[in-house]
Design a protein that fits this description.
Helices cover about 10% and strands about 50% of the residues. The chain is built from 3 helices and 15 strands. Strands 1-2-3-4-5-6-7-8-10-11-12-13-14-15 form a 14-stranded antiparallel β-barrel. A hairpin with a 5-residue loop joins strand 12 and strand 13. The radius of gyration is 22 Å and the shape is globular.
Length: about 325
């Protein structure tokens, strides 16, 4: 029985490592966490910006997977720069496990011809991976009623992490590239051989102004995100329609031209989104993922985002800011 218990626990940890290590957290509203999407977007706002996003994935599964992120960034217009901070946490209740990351971001911008802006960004920080072994119950504890004689690796792993990216944009479109986990940090709980695989992403979006009065109260924003990490490939594709003050959208996640590791069609979910923008500064959005994969009984995923970004009221001569239409 003891061998079975140990094998079962090892299998659970192995499965978690493949879910949580082989693939980073994903958001349907990926644009609502710009510092996580691409560090080059740091400071791509007239003044400052505050973002928070929460995702509750597979909510019908007990002790499911949940992710929180909070970020703030500031435009240092005089120095052609932006600075920001990003705090994120993933929690897997079934294994009493969590991943917490704190990152600082910096971006520098270069004005090009034809109203183009090139932004280049870096991000660095630390990650903390933790498992609470005390929440597990083992066979010898059931027999003795005391502490277990099982021994495990360290419950906490702390590691450095670095990201770099670039974004090219005008006021009506943007395109970006980013590379994550550049140092391939060791994150294993059971050994030092598990390395965090690098993640590469390409992003693009376009804002189509549909307001006949030219006041920006009606706009369509198609956006896409492609990511590759280890053996995982993923494409997010969709669009949001903004009709002041309402926001609606539809999104698809998957890459049906490829197959998963199990040989099935690579498709994850289709999502619907509703939101509202208050006084041209505060945006609150909700999206729900309907699962298309074999996990169709998991309950899908709920996601809520809040973005606060004051409107640009500056009349300062010589300002070099060019709006990046990442959201609207």
């Amino acid at each position: 029985m003891r061998k079975f218990t140990t094998a079962l626990l090892t299998g659970c940890i192995w499965a978690w490592m493949h879910i949580a290590v082989a693939q980073d957290a994903n958001f349907t509203q990926f644009y609502a966490s710009p510092l996580y999407l691409n560090p080059a977007l740091t400071g791509a706002t007239p003044h400052f910006r505050f973002n928070t996003i929460y995702r509750n994935q597979w909510w019908q599964v007990p002790n499911n997977y949940q992710t929180n992120q909070i970020s703030a960034d500031f435009n240092l217009d005089y120095y052609d720069s932006g600075i920001g901070v990003l705090l994120s946490q993933d929690r897997i209740g079934a294994l009493a496990a969590s991943i917490t990351q704190l990152n600082l971001s910096y971006a520098y911008r270069v004005r090009l011809r034809w109203g183009m802006m090139l932004r280049m960004g870096i991000q660095g920080g630390i990650g903390i991976r933790n498992t609470d072994w005390g929440r597990f119950v083992f066979e010898d504890q059931l027999q003795s009623g005391g502490a277990t004689a099982e021994s495990f690796a360290q419950p906490t792993v702390i590691y450095p992490d670095f990201t770099a990216g670039a974004v090219l944009h005008r006021t009506n479109f943007w395109i970006g590239l980013a590379a994550f986990h550049l140092s391939r940090p060791s994150v294993g709980l059971l050994s030092n051989t598990e390395k965090l695989p690098m993640r590469f992403s390409a992003q693009a979006g376009y804002r189509i102004d549909l307001d006949p009065l030219g006041e920006g109260n009606i706009a369509l924003s198609p956006t896409l995100l492609y990511q590759r990490q280890g053996n995982f490939n993923q494409l997010d594709l969709g669009a949001n329609l903004y009709y002041h003050p309402l926001l609606i959208g539809i999104w698809y996640r998957g890459l049906p031209i490829s197959s998963t590791l199990r040989g099935s069609i690579n498709q994850d979910a289709i999502a619907g989104l509703v939101g509202v923008r208050f006084k041209n500064s505060l945006t609150v959005s909700y999206s729900y993922d309907v699962t298309l994969s074999t996990l169709n009984r998991s309950g899908g995923a709920h996601e809520i985002s809040v973005i606060y970004e004051p409107a640009d009221k500056r009349r300062k001569r010589g300002s070099k800011h060019v709006d990046c239409p990442i959201v609207f």
